[in-house]
Amino acid sequence: MTSTDPMTEVRAFILERNPRLDSVADDLDLIDSRAISSLAFIEFIFLLEELTGKTIDPEDLDLDDFRTLRAIDSRFFVKEAAA
Predict the structure, then answer these.
(1) Which of 3, 5, 6, 30 has the highest CB neighbour number within 10 Å of its CB?
(2) Shortest CA distance to 77 belongs to which of 53, 60, 59, 52?
């Protein structure tokens, strides 16, 4: 079993759905740039749940938590590593 950085998988998810992008900067606004479309958002939530091993409550969602890779890392992975 290999250990993969979850943010590598998050980047791969975004790049797979956006062939026009060569890379995803940590501060790219993923929502305004449409790198994560409304159609892919639910799929993206499922990916984050799989990577964190935790259910994400839709009532607890804040779009700012998904706006950039930096925000996603901070909200879903850095907090978990510190816990």
Answers:
(1) 30
(2) 52
What's 17's domain CATH number? Answer: 1.10.1200.10
CA-CA distance, 12 to 73, in Å (whole number)?
Answer: 14
Q: What is the pLDDT of residues 1-27, one digit of tens each?
A: 345 799 999 999 999 999 999 999 999
27-82 residue pLDDT tens: 999 999 999 988 899 999 999 999 999 999 988 889 999 999 999 999 999 865 55
User: Global pTM?
Assistant: 0.86
Taken in order 73, 41, 55, 57, the sign of the CA dihedral is positive
